[in-house]
Amino acid sequence: MSIASIQSRLLTYDPQTVVEQEHALKEIAQEIALLALSRAGFFRVAEFQGGTCLRILYGLERFSEDLDFVLEKSNKNFAWREYIEYMQEEFKAYGFTLEIKDRAKAEQVVKTAFLKADSKGGVLILKDSRNQKPQLRIKLEIDTNPPQGATSEIKYLDFPISYSIRTQDLSSLFAGKCHALLCRSYLKGRDWFDFNWYVARKIEINFKLLSNAIAQAGPWKNQNINVDAKWLAHELKMKINAIDWSAAKQDAARFLRNRELATLDLWSKEFFLSRVERLQ
Predict the structure, then answer these.
(1) Whole-prediction pTM value?
(2) Tens of pLDDT along 183-201?
(3) CB 19 within 8 A of CB 258
(4) Quick one: which of 159, 235, 195, 165 has its CA closest to 62?
């Protein structure tokens, strides 16, 4: 392992702007963190999920800032500290000093994947020990009381070296995204970029997982809702009609390369209503 491998990896991104370079460096750091977690045995008890999962494992055409995970089984006693040492050692090999602020100290910048209180997270802060480059910050979050019904698979990565991780499969990831679309209390344009990505690829939704997530957290908690395709379509349309699509575009644009920005020109109420029709 060497610092040169990071420089070589960065060249494969061909960043055209400073922002693109920052996103690329953050993604490289995310992959190093995943390697460390794999070596620590983390993926024997947890699964990868979220936007960064889609980006790194499935080729999503946008950058992402978080590392989101979910435990396979509920465990209120889960603690990140046993995995931090592995990440610190891994980053040290590349010239970075790793700090982590726990959720209590970073409450304002850490948001949960399933909008739940029983999640544990923090912010990884990477400091380049060789110069005064800006610090890299990566949000880290895990759902310690996951809704039941997810299905998973093993995926293999080759940077910095070959290793394996366990991830939720695409149908379960889509279920999680639908839950976020309906239940977030704030607008996140990136959610809608991901939604269109799933629909365009005709990914099926794991309705068992979605139903359990809806019952566990959000405005329909404990309401015994019949979560099926018809119900989902109706609620998505209600959400779409209420969104400020200019604001949604601005949020998503920050995570796209310049060559992908043109896709946002399509964004409107009518466009996303047509996506829901395709989903049905």
Answers:
(1) 0.87
(2) 988 999 999 999 999 999 9
(3) no
(4) 195
